[in-house]
Each structure stands twice: as C-alpha cells, then as structure tokens.
Amino acid sequence: MRPIESVIPHRPPFLFIDSIESIDEEGLVAKRKIREEEPQFAGHYPGNPIMPGVLLCEATFQAAAYYLVETKFGGDFGAGELTPILARIVDARFKQMVVPGDEVTIEVTYKEARSHFHFLRGKVVKNGKVALAVEFALALVDKKPEPTQA
Fold first, then answer.
1. Distance CA 121, CA 137 (A)
2. What helix, strand, coil percent values describe the chain, rounded to 5?
C-alpha cells in the first residue's frame, strides 16, 4: 500500500490516520494512535483530554478518501486536480470516548455511487467496541483554479 500522504491531500496537523492495514473492493481498515501532544487537547479539555467526535468522523472521511482513490479512481486524484469533499452525513452515533493513548481501528465500507457522490459507512473501534458509527457521502470535485493576477 502506498503512503497515505501520497494518496490524499491531508497533512499534519489535520491528518488523522496513521496506517492503512488492508484494502479491497468492499472497504478499508486503517489505524490511528491518539497522541497526548495533539493540538486539540489543549482546549478539549484541559485536564481531561477527549478526542473530539468530529475529528473521529474526519479520520473516517480521510480513510474513505484513501479508499476511493485506490479503488475507484485508478490510484490518484487526477494528478492533484480533484479534492475529496464531504457531501453528507446521514447518521453519526458516538458510543464511547476516545482519549490520548488509545489506538483505534477505522473501518470503511463502500455502499454505492450516485453521479459523483460516493456513499459509505464507517466506524471507529476501540478495544473491540464501536466508538463511532457514521454513514456519509463524499464527492470528488475539481480543484479550484488559482486566481489570475492582472
């Protein structure tokens, strides 16, 4: 499997997957170690750091973007011309907290495509139990052209 940063455009400190464990036509499995020094913990919450649920969702969306590029788009986003965009969150359920020191598994399952929208299901698993279950859609859109100077 190719390095994550060679497949999707996300970069630290906004890259929330560490490794891709497996990928096939049905979906993908990724891993993420939650680190105490991550910037969100300075404010969420001092003295009681909890991984924001929205960032768990983001990790799932990033894993899905990797999956789409590798299985549906021939291995690239058109030489950087496409950007993965979240189009819809159908349902998100948070079932347990994730804190620094936890290692989570991110599972993405492909459901279907309609037009340029790709519908997926994801979950974040901690210690064998679901921490997040989410259904969502991603679209790949043309990169916005650089403004021209007169």
1. 9
2. 20, 40, 40
In this prediction the pTM is 0.91
Nearest alpha-carbon partner for 73 in 84, 62, 59: 84
Kindly state the tokens that stand for 8: 């999707």
Task: Give Cβ neighbours of residue 41 (< 8 Å, ≥ 6 apart).
Answer: 49, 100
Give me the CATH number covering residue 57: 3.10.129.10
Catalytic residues: 44
Q: Is 131 among the domain residues?
A: yes
In the numeric block, which tokens belong to residue 130?
A: 């679901």
* pLDDT, averaged across the chain: 91
The answer to whether residue 150 sits within a structural domain is no
Say which range, 71-85, 94-108, 132-146, has the weakest mean pLDDT.
71-85
Residues 6+ apart with CB under 8 A from 14: 58
